[in-house]
Amino acid sequence: MKRAMWLAAACGVAMAAEARGQTITVNWSQDDGVDFAMPQTVANLPGPDGHVTLAEAVIAANNTAGAQTIAFNVPQNVWSTLFGTQVCMFYHSNMHYVSGDDTTIDFTTQTTFTGDTNPNGNEVGLYYAGAPSSIPNLWLAGNRITVKGADRFLGNNFEQRLWVTGNDCRVIGCTTTGLTIRGDFGGGERNLIGGAGVGEGNVFTGAVNILSRAHGNLVKGNVFRWGFRLSGDTLNGTCDNNVFGGATAAEGNVFAGRSTTGQEGLPTGTELEIYHARNTLIQNNKVGTTNDGLARYAGRTGATGIGIGIGAAGTMVMDNIVGGIERTGSNHYQGVRFGVAITVAASASGSVIRGNRIGVAVDGLTPILNVQGITVLSDPNSTPSNTLIDGNVIARNETSGVRILYAGSARVTRNSIRENGGLGIDLDVMGVQANDAMDGDAGPNGLQNYPVLTSATVRGASVEVAGELRSMVSRAYVVELFASSGCDASGYGEGARYLGSVHVTTDGAGIAAITTTVNAVASAGEVLTATATDVATGYTSEFSACVTATTAPCAADFNADGVVDFFDYLDFVSVFADGGAGADFNADTVVDFFDYLDFVAEFASGC
């Protein structure tokens, strides 16, 4: 159902097709000049001064029916500049309010007119030079409006740069500062920020937000250097069905650079934060890394990569790369390390974290360490979060792979958790939690007891595992089994490779025997560990202590000399001919021809 809603949102944006009619050409950068006659339509341009300013072009587009394109052919000798001669800045004391549907503002036409004068971005920017005010430089209030190829929006307006309150609008190919999509003006739906095509993505160096009932927006193919905040609120309502990235790598965004410091030297800042939002999809993005996902971003990052915050419901985080989220505090926090790849906050619900690479590059191997992998939080007054952490690679983090705190809860299943500095799964305080009788203690994930493995025997392409789980009485559990090349320094976990699972039910004493064979390849000398998940609650334990896998003795080595050869065959045939008990090869208490056939099959396989 969620996927259908996200696809519907995508289709809605795609329907904002380009249907461009008349072109209004701006040729003057002194932007507050408005001198053309009523009714101030395209037909009334230019005014007596012979110039067309951006303010005039916007007014004319708003007052003229049909699709309009605003183009730029401003001679360089009349540019108002801020950054040398690189960027034509339009200084204005009022905001540009675009209400005309199907309007395109194509700043790239200035590049076509004068050439590429700005090696670090585009050629046209806006500067609000009026009295201090929280108004945007440019406000897209109509529907199906496109802004293409803008450079920085600056000025004395408290970073209120570009607002989008219409529906089905597009912002593409910009190298600009901030942007806000707002749903509290009756729109803010199905807008497209960026794109997967060449030149469609934007680079944002300021704050970007989706706020207050803004639904179904698509954000893809962009680079964000100062973070992104998706936030509904309890007064105006949630933001629903917004998408960051998409099914292909080209649709993914890059979030890196949101570095701030709080009081007394506390590192802060979140690269992508979600609050009071429902059914958000975050897919195929790179967080904290270079644009190619192969290394840590060279600048400073935030203290959190992806923050699933208060009031977030049904958030899907999948197929992302999250690495390089690490900061060192200063002042009162001197030397203290901070940085969590993904956090799930107290009142978030129904979060799914699946198929991500956390702490490693796109190749799944190269380390891009975070201080911590995933942290699930809660508090005594909140409902358990019921987070699902499924099928991720969580590796090379400085401390824990997955940490669940306070009254937090999460089902942790089928992940590759390896080579972390702390425990693979850590409940409550750092360090291994001891099992307790009847599993009656309380805490994160109910401090679920972990299994105790006693043996792991490799037999070809399968592994026989024995052990037991002591937990609550008469209760169903899933025991998951993992293999690793070596054991954690604690002697417990981690679990580099998922092997399979077995369902067990405890008896009246709270004990369930584990005797199972999983069809998976493991090698003698590898270590096996296990987790237990309560079927009813979804609570997952820490990893069990390690047990070293051994190879099963070869039954066809009948004389036990370590070599399977013709002497074994002769010895078996001799015992079989005498009807000796040692020839009961299939252990059915009867020596018959089936024992002979089974021995020959085993002998032929060479074990």
Description:
Helices cover 9% and strands 32% of the residues. It has 607 residues and is mainly beta. The chain has 4 domains: 1-16 and 190-194 and 201-290 and 299-428; 17-173, no CATH class; 446-551, Immunoglobulin-like (Sandwich), CATH 2.60.40; 566-605, no CATH class. The strands form 9 sheets. A 13-stranded parallel sheet has the order 1-2-5-8-11-14-17-21-27-30-35-38-41, with helices on both faces. A 12-stranded parallel sheet has the order 4-7-10-13-16-19-25-29-34-37-40-43. α4 runs antiparallel to α5 (593-605). The chain is elongated and about 120 Å long. The relative contact order is 0.06. The model is unreliable at 1-20 (pLDDT under 50).
Secondary structure: elements and pairs:
Elements: H1 2-14, E1 22-26, H2 54-63, E2 68-72, E3 88-92, E4 96-98, E5 103-106, H3 108-114, E6 124-128, E7 138-140, E8 146-148, E9 153-155, E10 162-164, E11 170-172, E12 175-176, E13 179-182, E14 192-194, E15 203-204, E16 208-211, E17 218-220, E18 223-224, E19 228-231, E20 239-240, E21 243-245, E22 254-255, E23 260-261, E24 267-268, E25 270-275, E26 277-278, E27 281-283, E28 286-287, E29 304-308, E30 316-318, E31 321-322, E32 327-328, E33 337-338, E34 340-344, E35 352-354, E36 357-358, E37 372-376, E38 387-390, E39 393-395, E40 402-404, E41 410-413, E42 416-418, E43 425-427, E44 452-459, E45 462-470, E46 476-484, E47 497-505, E48 511-518, E49 527-534, E50 547-548, E51 550-551, H4 566-578, H5 593-605
Parallel strand pairs: 1-2, 2-5, 3-6, 4-7, 5-8, 6-9, 7-10, 8-11, 10-13, 11-14, 12-15, 13-16, 14-17, 15-18, 16-19, 17-21, 18-22, 19-25, 20-26, 21-27, 22-28, 25-29, 27-30, 28-31, 29-34, 30-35, 31-36, 34-37, 35-38, 36-39, 37-40, 38-41, 39-42, 40-43, 44-51
Antiparallel strand pairs: 23-24, 32-33, 44-45, 45-48, 46-47, 46-49, 49-50
